[in-house]
């Protein structure tokens, strides 16, 4: 994940949901205001919107806890969690083995794919081969050797390029939007990027000359679903979040939000 210019609002805490008024009934949720739809953004009115914003409101209501939102850049979310500045975080985090070394994950609320995107004028056929580690099919590294591939820093896509596409040059960006901007500017040959995010760009006038070259086969490096991240020593918060998610799955709320924000169903 992530997006255009980070609009960090220093020292501002927004309340996502109503709950008990006492401090001991407040939980700190780390989120980023960088636009990354359909997951989340802060709109022109200063309101949080998107799948993760609505889901977090529902989670906090189920926990009967007031959620105090701490805004920060996406790549600062995990460090802030482990520095105990927040209690849990959300930001289209894919569950991976590497991330499991530093955080615990809730049950996933969505499974996201990855797209390999380039210019329509580029006639290179992006194909797949068997992964050397036996994890299934991967992008054929010989085809993209010597190419520049834009990825968001600290993302599962960056990890994928580092692991499987060593002959290519990975160019890292603080936001997904900046990687796409450099694709348009011709500074990178391709971007490896979450599929939901790139679809918005491809449907826009700016994306008219670009296309998905390959829907990258699912792979453990690319994650096992999208979830909240919780500090490893905080079983209490993990239990509360998973309990709330279980209730939201049972009553159909999670699916309704996915249908609304991901699939555009009213």
| Helix-strand makeup class | alpha/beta
Distance between the termini: 25 Å
Mean pLDDT: 89
CATH topology of the largest domain: D-Maltodextrin-Binding Protein, domain 2
Element string (H = helix, E = strand): EEEEHEHEHEEEEHEHEHEHEEHH
Largest sheet data:
6 strands, mixed
Instruction: Report Rg.
Output: 19 Å
The count of helical stretches stands at 9
Low-confidence spans: 2-15, 17-23
Please tell me what the overall shape is. globular
CATH hierarchy, class of the largest domain: Alpha Beta
By DSSP, the count of extended strands is: 15
Superfamily (CATH H level) name of the largest domain: Periplasmic binding protein-like II
Examine the secondary-structure arrangement and name the CATH architecture of the largest domain: 3-Layer(aba) Sandwich
Helix content: 25-40%
Explain what you see.
The protein has 2 domains: 26-111 and 224-263, D-Maltodextrin-Binding Protein, domain 2; 114-222, D-Maltodextrin-Binding Protein, domain 2, CATH 3.40.190.10. Helix content is 30%, strand content 25%. It is built from 9 helices and 15 strands. It has helices at 51-63, 77-82, 97-100, 141-144, 156-164, 176-185, 195-202, 235-250, 253-261, and strands at 13-15, 26-31, 41-42, 48-49, 66-71, 88-94, 104-105, 114-119, 128-130, 137-139, 148-152, 169-173, 190-194, 210-216, 226-230. Strands 1-5-2-6-15-7 form a 6-stranded mixed β-sheet. Helix 1 (51-63) packs antiparallel against helix 9. The longest helix is centred in the last third of the chain and has 16 residues, at 235-250. The chain is globular. Pfam families: SBP_bac_3.
């Amino acid at each position: 994940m992530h997006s255009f210019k980070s609009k960090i609002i220093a020292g501002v805490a927004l309340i996502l949901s109503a709950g008990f008024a006492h401090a001991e009934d407040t939980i700190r949720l780390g989120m980023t205001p960088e636009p990354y739809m359909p997951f989340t953004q802060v709109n022109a009115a200063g309101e949080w919107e998107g799948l993760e914003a609505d889901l977090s409101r529902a989670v906090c209501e189920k926990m009967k806890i007031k959620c105090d939102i701490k805004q920060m850049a996406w790549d600062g979310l995990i460090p802030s969690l482990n520095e105990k500045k927040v209690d849990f975080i959300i930001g289209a985090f894919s569950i991976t083995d590497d991330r499991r070394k530093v955080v615990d994950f809730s049950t996933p609320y969505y499974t996201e794919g990855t797209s390999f995107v380039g210019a329509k004028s580029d006639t290179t056929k992006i194909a797949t081969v068997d992964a050397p580690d036996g994890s299934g099919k991967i992008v054929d590294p010989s085809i993209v050797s010597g190419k520049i591939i834009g990825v968001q820093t600290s993302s599962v896509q960056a990890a994928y390029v580092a692991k499987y596409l060593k002959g290519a040059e990975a160019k890292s960006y603080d936001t997904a939007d900046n990687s796409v901007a450099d694709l348009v500017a011709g500074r990178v040959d391709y971007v490896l990027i979450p599929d939901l995010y790139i679809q918005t760009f491809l449907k826009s006038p700016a994306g008219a000359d670009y296309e998905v070259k390959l829907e990258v086969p699912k792979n453990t490096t690319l994650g096992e679903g999208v979830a909240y991240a919780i500090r490893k020593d905080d079983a209490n918060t993990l239990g509360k979040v998973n309990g709330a998610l279980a209730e939201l799955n049972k009553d159909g709320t999670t699916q309704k939000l996915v249908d609304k924000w991901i699939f555009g169903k009213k």
